[in-house]
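Dear Dr. V.,

Thank you for agreeing to look over these. As mentioned in my earlier message, I'm a first-year student in the group and I'm still getting used to reading structure tokens, so any feedback on how I've presented them would be very welcome. I ran two proteins. I've put each sequence directly above its structure. The first is here:
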Amino acid sequence: MAAAPGAATIPGMRSWLQRSILRGLNRLCADTAARLGGSLGVLAWRLGVRRTVANQVIARTLALRGPARARVTRRAYATMGANFVELWTIGGPDGPERHVQRANPRWQAAIHRRHPALAYVGPHIGSWDMGACGIAGNAGRFLVYAKAQHNPVVDRLINIQRERLGCEVLFADHGDRAGAVTAFRAMRAGASLGLIADQRPGEHESVPALFLGQPAQCHQGPKFF
């Protein structure tokens, strides 16, 4: 059966529109992008996007209720929105990588000279991409695990941005040993590895772990390390 006229062009038009918007964001200053993203994050919080889950996490891990919990959750949404929009300004006229400052660069360089292959494990909060930027300069070769986005166009463009920071992206796919083998071989050769340990995996690719004293599910890679 023949496809409806114009049906095949809709995904192409959507992909073109997405790329155009993201390229437009690249021309913004990092600070402007962060303010815009923060506002969008607060809007998502007010609309209740996954707010029940976020409230439960804050209550269980920080024992906060009422207005105190609302302030923390609102700030978390604002931070996530700011980080996401800011990501697209990397490599632009005033990307965030131009403003990264290391509190003690000599200490970090000395650690990498003494231990060339390091595994950095952190939580999925804050500007983790800029954290990786602060590491990549001394790490030489720096591999990072990331979970593939549902939108393949956005996923490819996100990883291009991360590569601009000096990061090589490994995908946390269930049952895929290629990424782990690549990571081990690279670390034996002196590369470092970055892991965000608390990203929630899919239903059939998770292993139990403890996070802030609470039972949680994570990918097998971060669990192993």
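The second protein is here, in the same arrangement:
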Amino acid sequence: MKLEAKHPLQEVVARGEGWVEECREPNDLVRACSLLRRQAATLYEEGLRSDVLTRTVARWNDAVLRRLLEIHRTDFDGIDWCWLALGSEGREEQTVHTDQDNALIFRADDARHIRERLLARLRGINEQLDQCGYMLCPGDVMASNPKWCLSLEEWQDTFAAWVDTGDPQALLHGAIFFDFRGIAGNLELARELREWLIEYIKPRPLFLKQMAEYAVSNTPPLWPWNRLKARRQEGERVLDIKVNGVSMFVDAARVFSLASGLNSTQTDKRLIDSARLESERRDRRAWVGAYRSLQDLRVRHQFDQLARGQRVDNRVRLDQLSRFDRQVLIAAMQEARRMQASLRLRYLL
């Protein structure tokens, strides 16, 4: 299929959601997801900005998940539940190279009984998502893991333990789970958990300090003279643009957001909305621009790999980039330095 440039984005998004709504069984969703990936490639070719593209992809992913859960709706009869998206899907920032990060929250007096009933079905749902192109999480951060299928009270206890402990594992979990977003079921459960979490963190500045330390531990890959650092791989200089680029902005934005008590999970919105003064807003706009430029390079790299029939990843080969692209990378890393300096000044001094 070919998307005509004259078609408004809203119409294209609705058309993709329509394909999903027409699905009556999981195999239909597999075919629909293939169409959606082709549609995303068409939008990229027509020059859609990366942040708009990733949110469009997230919207389609949400539709796929909701339709799959609707197909399995009888498995949830009599249970008050909500499916949570975590990580990049929770932030609505998924690219075409993604695995699953999800969880389930439910309301129940007998959590153990409800969990046993749910787990009997959830593995199949995760596996069907895998068949649709959303890879099983290698770290098993999925709703079918009993550790991440919890009642509202159990989730509160889990988050409280992470906040109060602040050890490296807790901070790693925070980087994934604190970006949760309700997708299907009773979304009020996700809202309740978010509001509780914001209030729980407020009187605990030590945790924000620990999160800030975690955020600045991933330093921009720049030598003092602003030459990009990279790992050698098969004779080429390779940079993981997600780990050593995008994630720096994501982690910093999460700290600013938690400190400001914001509900938003989107990185650019977190950065802008947590600014208190006009001078801060100017800085934040520069950081958002740097973040988006990294996402632009990342998305382009992945679609180029798809076009060549290669396995999709985040490892950009620096020597294959144009001089302009390398300068864009360097400028984004310089902004990351300034952003991390702001984090240190506010939370670590």
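From my reading of the second output: Strands lie at 80-85, 102-107, 149-151, 181-185, 231-233, 236-240, 315-317. The first strand starts at residue 80 and ends at 85. Does that match how you would interpret it?

Kind regards,
E.
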